[in-house]
Amino acid sequence: MSEFLEFENVSKSFGAIRAVDGVSFSVKRGEFFSLLGPSGCGKTTLLRIVAGFEQPDAGRVRLDGQDLTDLPPHQRPVNTVFQSYALFPHLSVRENIAFGLRVAGRPRREIREEVDKMLRLIRMEDQAHKKPAQISGGQKQRVAVARALINRPRVLLLDEPLAALDLKLRQHMLLELDLIHDEVGITFLYVTHDQTEAMSVSDRIAVMNGGRVEQIGTPTEVYEAPRSSFVAAFIGDTNFFDGVVTALEDHDYCRLSIQGLPDVLCYNDKQNQPGDPVHLIVRPEKFRISPEPPPADPRRNTLEGVVEDVIYMGNHTRYWVRLDGHRLAVFQQHRRFMLDEKPIRWNDRVWLSWDANDGYMLERYNVSDERLVQRPPDVLTTTKST
Amino acid sequence: MKTSRVPAMTMWLTLVFFYLPIAVLVLDSFNASRFAGTWGGFSFRWYARLWREQEIWHALRNSMLVGVAATVVSTVLGTSAAFALHRYRTRLQAAHYALIYTPLVVPEILMGMSLLILFVSLRVQLGLFTVFLAHVTFCLSYVTMVVLARLQDFDYSIIEAAMDLGADWRQALWRVLIPLLAPGIMAGALLAFTLSIDDFVTTFFVAGAGATTLPIRVYSMIKHGATPLINALSTLLLALTFLVVWTAQRLIRDNSGRAVPGGGERR
Ligand SMILES: Nc1ncnc2c1ncn2[C@@H]1O[C@H](COP(=O)(O)OP(=O)(O)OP(=O)(O)O)[C@@H](O)[C@H]1O
Ligand SMILES: [Mg+2]
Which of B87, B154, B160, B165 is most worth mutating to test chain A (most A CB atoms within 10 A of its CB)? Predict the structure, then answer.
């Protein structure tokens, strides 16, 4: 597919802060592309560079081959949905939506028809005369989208458009945005710090950290195969292990020695050699937890530990299991009627097992990223031995 | 239900304190007697006399000329200054703010004298033009402060939104910024006009022989003891002021869906 919106080595500093640091990637035509990252990682800055509100210190931004970098905002074929909506308070809903066509000097009749179309798209035909102060947050958000779409931008930029809404409305509006995206077929560049938001609607996600892009991929790729400890910890829950390769097995597998644990088998897609240090992650839902030792299986790793905390969540239960020097998060889906099962309780001895294919080895690891993992308050003293 | 009478009492006392002198003045302007204190019957006598008083009308014309000109110029300059102060928080703008703020606290007599010295040393002919310049200097500060207050809760992303939708800076200015700031600009302009119309001290210093404004004229009339005429004039001015303020507030409310200057957003 064609490269549509291209970033080439884009950098932007504010004083000593490198808000965007040598970013290169491209977005495909018609894609719903998300920029995901924690607060202050440079998402907004990158979006504002596309809109033309910030001038990059270095690098180029191209759209369909055309260099945008030096164009002023009003000459760029992109439109923005602002986080605070930035609706014009002195204009009605209809006039707000019409603004783009009005400044372009389009004929009145055409403006009316186009605005009517937009009002239908956002299902607000009966609110057209109201001022922004008189409509709800969700409606403001829809007006902001309609106002930005009426110019038929080649890319729609959305900066945390749902951040000001409550959870229920957020989920609803997200679906609505997704429908609008399908209907208008315009490329969406969507900024958010909420991973569930990004995961649920994006075609691809760029995970950002400290002004850099850590990884780009489909939601499944960034979740299942995170390249760095940051991506692993920022998106979903995870368990980290650091170990050393001791032996290769069956070409595709390797055996790891991890401190405090019996040796572990792992799929070796990185072609690691004996002696190489590796950082392994196992997502909590990949474990199977049982009160008895599981049947022996050469492809499965088995660990024995003690339950430290149990949180019943209805459709699944979260356990914290302590092993020698490790504290593991485990999710167990309930496929059976739970009252018939013998429950696993605090201080029970349990066995955890996971398939050798379900662990994943990181390319980059940074100890400080472990802080991003949500953990319950520590009951005992240490979380991890050094 | 028993409610406290204190608030009502305070309100009435305040109103009396403020408006009793004005009420007396208005009443006296219809007094046929030349002496305040003795009621000589209702009459439009002083209004008729006022009508024939050429010098007063000349002074009023001067005041209006200076007032309108000073208002227009100081409103444009003050609004730009406020915008610069709000948008760019550099060290230069901090100095700018201090310089704009100072005239508000400097004694007027000092302003008047320094302006006079300046005009004389530059050999500028004293007259309406120098009065106009002097009025711009102090009106400017007030306009800036009023518009700046309005800008404090102004969301700049609205301007960015306008640009984003294809407006160049001129369209953003006329379609978004000015309509949104209108209440503040109007309030600033009104304030500037009132300040200019009734300024005495500064004007007294920089007005030449032919440039008598209304306050100066009134002052010299009082010296010659023509109070009933002044009562009539003041009553007219009072009525005019109420009319202007009332219309301005109506305009502001209708245009922007917002309440009077300084008020919050209407929900
Ligand atoms: N105009 C500015 N002046 C100075 N520093 C800025 C400016 N804009 C952004 N920054 C800094 O640049 C960094 C990146 O900011 P940016 O707004 O892009 O983050 P973000 O990823 O959008 O965060 P959030 O999720 O909180 O919106 C931050 O450290 C921020 O403080
Ligand atoms: Mg942001």
Answer: B165
Is the pLDDT at B140 greater than 80, yes or no? yes
Going by alpha carbons, the residue nearest to atom 1 of ligand 1 is A14
Q: Note whether A73 contacts B: Cβ–Cβ < 8 A.
A: yes
Taking the CA atoms of B154, B158, B160 and B163 in sequence, report the sign of the dihedral they define: negative
For a ligand 1 pocket test, name from A43, A47, A197, A207 the mutation site with the most ligand atoms within 8 angstroms of its C-beta.
A43
Instruction: Indicate whether A182 and A311 sit together in one domain.
Output: no
Q: Is B168 on the interface with A (CB under 8 A)?
A: yes
ipTM of the modeled complex: 0.81
Give residue A232's Cα distance to chain centre.
11
- Chosen domain end from A194, A224, A254: A224
pLDDT above 70 (res A288): yes
Q: Give the nearest partner residue to A88 out of B164, B166, B176, using CB atoms.
A: B176
- Restricting to A residues 226-265, those with a Cβ less than 8 Å away from any Cβ of B are none
Do residues A30 and A186 lie in contact, with contact meaning Cβ atoms separated by under 8 Å? yes
Q: Pick the residue of A55, A90, A91, A147 with the most B CBs within 10 A to test the interface with B by mutation.
A: A90
Both A234 and A211 in a single domain?
no
Domain containing residue A367: 229-373
Instruction: Based on the fold, state whether residues A237 and A148 are members of the same structural domain.
Output: no
Residue A296 and residue A95: Cα distance in Å, rounded?
70
Does residue A141 sit at the B interface (CB-CB below 8 Å)? no
CB contact under 8 A, B163 and A72: yes
Domains, chain B: 1-43 (no CATH), 54-257 (1.10.3720.10)
Smallest CA–CA distance, residue A97 to chain B, in Å, is: 10
Ligand nearest to the CA of A54: 1
Residue A379, in any domain of the structure: no
Do A51 and A124 reside in the same domain of the chain? yes
Helix axes B128-151, B178-197, angle to 10 degrees: 140
How does A322-340 read in b/e, with b if 16+ C-beta sit within 10 Å? beeebbbbbbbeeeeeeee
Helix axes of B227-256 and B45-52: crossing angle, nearest 10 degrees: 90
CB A158 within 8 A of CB A191: yes
Residues A201 and A251 in one domain: no
CATH of the domain at A188: 3.40.50.300
Tell me: do A120 and A186 sit in the same domain: yes
**Per the domain annotation, does A9 fall within a domain?**
yes
Give domain status of residue A385, yes or no.
no
Q: Which residues of A touch B267 (CB under 8 A)?
A: 133
- In a domain, residue A320? The reply is yes
Q: Which residues contact A344 (CB under 8 A, 6 or more apart)?
A: A289, A291, A307, A310, A317, A319, A350
Question: For chains A and B, what is the number of CB pairs under 8 angstroms?
Answer: 78
Q: How many structural domains compose chain A?
A: 2
| A47, A105: one domain | yes
- Kindly report the pTM of this predicted structure: 0.80
Query: Predicted confidence band at A378 (pLDDT cuts at 50, 70, 90)?
Result: low
Domain C-terminal end among A179, A208, A224: A224
Angle between helices B128-151 and B91-105 (to 10 degrees): 120
Model confidence at B126, pLDDT cuts 50, 70, 90, reads confident
